[in-house]
Amino acid sequence: MDRNLPDTATDYGLVLATDLDGTFLGGNDDERRTLYEAIEARDDVLLVFVTGRDVDFIRDLIARPGMPTPRYIVGDVGTSVYDVEQDFKPVTALEAEIATIWGNANDRVVEMLKNEPGIELQPTPFRHRVSYYYKPAELQDSTVRKIEEAGFDCLTSADLYLDVLPKGIAKGPTLRRMVEALALPHDRVLAAGDTMNDLSMLDCGLKSVAVGNSEDRLLAALPDAPHIYRATGHGCAGVLEAIHHFDLTQK
């Protein structure tokens, strides 16, 4: 469905910056349908997917009937930004700093970690990060230290994913840069997530929700603060719960 969006950024009634797996794709069929239809019925929503998923996955996702189309994607755990309306063209103004910090380090990271136990390189290549599957019982503290001492950030989530990221780059910092660059209304932004790779986004000073199925490590890491809401509903139900909690319904 094509929606007539506001002429200026300050007219948005809701800027929903949401993780996908477990969050915007979480909940049962009825809960997902309720949230998606509520978004499509409004003319004041800017939808941003903030995800570890790649562009090919998202192209397939938004081709599904009933799936709302985002305007922007903060992808690859915050290391890339795409404009969906411009055929998924990278937003170079927001990616320039990320690319500079990363410094084409993919091959260097793979070589550095090629013999480390407990990790397996993911088959999908990314532009500004290197991603692995990991086994919590086998991952060595020395591996994490090696990553950090080489000047990168190491992020684990869902007891399955390990990402080597540019120093200081994650979902939260990139979302904040987007909000500033597009002059979006801070008080109308809602960030939503469920795993540890969402921590930086949920604790970046914007309104946020940890949905009801969030992993325990995330809930333990989040501070008690009025701008952070812990929902009881899972996935989409938790997102809709937070929209009402923060009074981000239609103006």
From TrEMBL:
Family that this chain belongs to: Belongs to the HAD-like hydrolase superfamily. Cof family.
NCBIfam families: HAD-SF-IIB
Protein name per the record: Alpha,alpha-trehalose-phosphate synthase
Pfam families for the chain: S6PP
Cofactor: Mg(2+)
Keyword Metal-binding: yes
Keywords: Hydrolase, Magnesium, Metal-binding
Gene Ontology molecular function terms on file: metal ion binding; phosphatase activity
Domain called Sucrose phosphatase-like: residue spans: 14-247
Residue ranges of coiled coil: none
